[in-house]
Design a protein that fits this description.
This protein has eight helices and no strands. By secondary structure, it is mainly α. The longest helix is centred in the middle third of the chain and has 37 residues, at 70-106. This is Polysaccharide transport protein.
């Protein structure tokens, strides 16, 4: 255990050192360039979007902690282990596609951009549909096995499990369109919708948590995610003229 732990720490410590060495090498190869502050003019909008994402990620746990008990929070945490793991798996699978979409946008080649965005959509949609459908069928049995012998509360929550996976699926489905907005430097235009999504999530979750508990909080997340997904699909048609949606029509 100590050997593997030492290796993990070594990798963590070496990463910034290696990245710094690469950065210095790149800077030397580029030479002295005039600083162009206009390239980071959208930094505060980018910060606002990340802050809204932070609110989204913390809303459910915060509301459950305030308005329910720790047993309910425990149930949410166990089920979220599955949903977060699947989200990370799909994120790792599609990370490289976003760069190709950004490259096509930078070249102003709308035919190539439409083609690559279509591929991006199909890959994400098929991965999400297949993986999350299987997960929806198996998440509750998995949690029951995982918590076997733990009798502090009832971990058999099939409706909550399915709704939680739906909310995370909606979060992933919008990725192609959100990535395009980032690549197009449209941070200002998508800042307000990101806060509207967070606001819808908070208001609806607080309104429903007393009566529906875990399900109520998840419904709030689904409504917020649905709004944000619809907005980004609509906003894509603003970025790409005459864009025809193949999946979302």
């Amino acid at each position: 255990y100590s050997f593997f732990e030492a290796n993990q720490w070594m990798l963590v410590l070496l990463q910034p050192v290696i990245l710094r060495a690469i950065q210095i090498r790149i800077i030397k190869s580029i030479g002295k360039l005039k600083i162009d502050n206009s390239l980071i003019k959208e930094r505060w909008n980018g910060f606002a979007i990340n802050f809204a994402a932070f609110i989204h990620n913390c809303t459910d746990i915060a509301i459950l902690t305030i308005f329910t008990d720790l047993k309910t929070v425990s149930i949410y945490s166990v089920y979220s282990l599955v949903s977060n793991g699947l989200k990370q798996l799909i994120n790792a699978s599609i990370t490289g596609i976003s760069a190709t979409v950004g490259q096509a946008y930078a070249k102003n080649n709308y035919d190539e951009l439409n083609r690559k965005l279509d591929i991006y959509e199909y890959v994400v949609f098929l991965l999400v549909f297949f993986i999350f459908t299987v997960a929806a069928l198996l998440i509750t049995p998995f949690v029951q096995i995982y918590t076997n012998g733990v009798n502090d509360t009832n971990y058999c929550q099939p409706y909550f499990g399915v709704l939680l996976l739906i909310s995370e699926a909606l979060y992933l489905v919008k990725f192609p369109h959100m990535s395009l907005a980032y690549n197009a430097n449209k941070f200002k235009e998508i800042t307000v919708p990101s806060f509207i999504e967070a606001g819808l999530n908070i208001v609806i979750s607080v309104a429903l948590v007393h009566k529906l508990g875990l399900v109520g909080v998840t419904i709030g997340t689904i409504v917020g995610m649905s709004y944000r997904t619809i907005f980004h699909v609509y906003f894509t048609s603003k970025i790409i003229p005459d864009r025809k949606q193949n999946i979302f029509t």
